[in-house]
Automatic annotation (TrEMBL):
Organism from which the protein derives: Actinomadura yumaensis
Keywords: Monooxygenase, Oxidoreductase
Protein name in the entry: FAD-dependent monooxygenase
Listed InterPro entries: FAD-bd (IPR002938), FAD-dep_Monooxygenase_BioMet (IPR050493), FAD/NAD-bd_sf (IPR036188)
Superkingdom in the source lineage: Bacteria
Amino acid sequence: MDNSGGARSALIVGAGIAGLTAASALARRGWLVEVIEAGAEGATAGWGLSLTGPSLRALDGLGLADQCLAAGYGMSVITNVDADGAATPIGLPRLIGRDRPAMAGIARPELHRILRAEALRLGARTRHGLSVSRLDQGDGRVRAELTDGTTRDVELLVGADGIRSVVRDLIGRSAPIRYHGQMVWRALVPRPAWATGIHTFAGVGHQTGVVPISPSQAYVFLTENGVRPDVLPDADLAARMGELLAPFTGRAAEVRPEVARSGSVIRRPVQTAFVDAPWSAGTSVVIGDAAHAPSPQMASGAALAIEDGLVLAQELDRCEDVREALETFTERRRERCSVLVRTSVAIARLEQEQRHRDAYPLIETCHRRMAQPA
Ligand SMILES: Cc1cc2nc3c(=O)[nH]c(=O)nc-3n(C[C@H](O)[C@H](O)[C@H](O)COP(=O)(O)OP(=O)(O)OC[C@H]3O[C@@H](n4cnc5c(N)ncnc54)[C@H](O)[C@@H]3O)c2cc1C
């Protein structure tokens, strides 16, 4: 029996930032939404995230910006400190109004908790430990075979399953994953009293910085240049990151002892991917990192993922024909996402060449571009 009451149905693969945002945006417009997630419930890695102005603006579109600001740490200034110690503070545009901060730092699990609670509140269902193994595109519907042997027959299939997207392969799209010779580190530390905004420190060989994510916590990031993407034992990470910070002086040196004893350190390869072909096939589409994964340097992958969810729902609202709506969605998103991925790659290269000052104008131009409406 069809219990849908005429509502359109969507299956979203991946309960990350893009998937949960799309779930809320669609459920709010009356879609019946199911989200399947390969990982276990509550398994989000515990490192911090910067939510730039466009992220906050998109979260505001979902009514969630204030919750994120309350759970995180609002700020409006980035201070870039050169290798010679010269500090350049940059005031950031306040995209959600003069009375609210320009951006926020937040712990990833906190952002996921907020996005998930909103999706559930709006009626979306989520299932964990589940993925998709086969997709058959019919006339205006998709039949999905799931890894537990069950099937779903839906009007819309959204692949929000990250940079290594399975859905991308299943719909016949490819995006080579490129490694850029850098590893990024994140360590959770107590927030230093002076860290009321983002600080970046250029060093000889590597660059580092501090981002507050709550009144009591901050994360220290470090980009390690010219290394192979190997895996180090978890038990060695804090000590090794401490060693990499040894050449830094000033405030960067102050956080070093806290990093070396941090219980939460991660190290990830700097990778990018971009789908050059259309992001949809029939009534299936990929969004977020599955379609366009920038490197972390612009701290804007989450912004694109959240915007994708909103814009997708808007286009599906505007156009009854799902296939057409998905094509318009890609057209509307492609250039913005491509610019961001290309800029992040260029910054990674300049960092490797120790040309930090050359990177600043690129970063500023790209942020200005991102400040334009999605
Ligand atoms: C170290 C690092 C730091 C970063 N810092 C920032 C930052 O400060 N600010 C910022 O804006 N961006 C940052 N980014 C980028 C940002 O994390 C991503 O752009 C963003 O998470 C993309 O969201 P997503 O939902 O598309 O993908 P993901 O966050 O990767 O979520 C994908 C989800 O799909 C699930 N999944 C994967 N495969 C399957 C499958 N086959 N079936 C079902 N589920 C599946 C995964 O478990 C996951 O839950 C950073 C990235 C890295 C690596």
